[in-house]
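Please check this chain.
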Amino acid sequence: MKPFHEYLPVYYRHTRTKGTITGRTKSHPDFSKQHHRWYKNGTKIVPDDVVLTPITVMAWFLGDGMYRKHRRRNPIVRFSTQSFSISELNDILIPRLEEHDLNFTITQRNELICGTGVVDRFFDFIGKKSPIGCYNYKFPFGSTEIDPVRPSAKTKYDYDLIVRLYLEGAILNDITQKIGCHVDTIYNALAKRNIALRTAV
């Protein structure tokens, strides 16, 4: 399979909302194979042969996971697993996680969650830094734990630098890595200056 190239998202402006951003990759037989593996008769499932490694759990966490620390509560890690059955969680995912000393329980909303005693082990397992800059906000380690979509007043980003890098041809991930911001910050910087996102070729 050939290496991925970043796909520049397309922005669709709506009259009643802020709009949506969408993107897609080219089709590939490997994608079709994985689709048939994870979707049986149109229903999302957990394959019996799923293997949980630091890399696969990292990818899972970036997509469906979250880290949360409230001021008066202990930190947690949560996975959005509402589309899976209770038996798939109990019989496949939880035992596979426990093989790595990661003890998760099921919430009333059918999510997987772990508490304080496991959070540190979880990040020791997957790594303490995101491999993709725009997901840094999901990790408790680093410069900030501030919500990337609604940063606090203490967070000041150089919009001029963001715009200049973008206009010079920098890709989104490179900008997030250099600035240390979420990708939404880039969209906000461009929108404030009425600069349209590059369209995919």
